């Protein structure tokens, strides 16, 4: 399975999410998209997941905090207790043997981030 983890502002659009995914350098369509449970109901995120045909995974706050991230965002750390919501979501959703394939990439409009993880379970 390929999991695209996302962090994003409430003003993010489908285009923001699509651009963040493209900037990871991984053109394979993810089988799953993941984000913090506080963000999972976002209309743009749900719409984007439908366009990809990807399964949505919601990651709870304690699980996000438990993940190690390569990149560090002060906003993510302050709001979610993790250096990167995108990286933490991707790795958590990809399961116990997850491998981060692409660290957090930021959309051109600065409204979304995406990271890619490879895993074998959800």
Task: Walk me through what this model shows.
- With 122 residues, this protein is of the alpha/beta class.
- It has one domain: CobE/GbiG C-terminal domain (Nucleotidyltransferase, domain 5, 2-Layer Sandwich).
- Helix content is 34%, strand content 26%.
- The protein is built from 5 helices and 5 strands; from the N terminus they run E-H-E-H-E-H-H-H-E-E.
- A 5-stranded mixed beta sheet has the order 3-2-1-5-4.
- Strand 1, helix 1 and strand 2 form a beta-alpha-beta unit.
- The longest helix is centred in the middle third of the chain and has 10 residues.
- It is globular.
- The model has no long low-confidence stretch (mean pLDDT 94).
Could you outline the blueprint of secondary structure elements for this entry?
Blueprint: E1 2-8, H1 14-22, E2 32-36, H2 43-52, E3 55-59, H3 61-66, H4 74-80, H5 85-94, E4 99-106, E5 112-118
Parallel strand pairs: 1-2, 2-3
Antiparallel strand pairs: 1-5, 4-5
Order of helices and strands: EHEHEHHHEE
Alpha carbon gyration radius? 12 Å
Helix content: 25-40%
Q: What is the CATH C-level name?
A: Alpha Beta
> Which residues form runs of ≥5 with pLDDT under 50?
none
Instruction: Indicate the CATH architecture.
Output: 2-Layer Sandwich
Largest sheet: 5 strands, mixed
Q: Give me the secondary-structure category.
A: alpha/beta
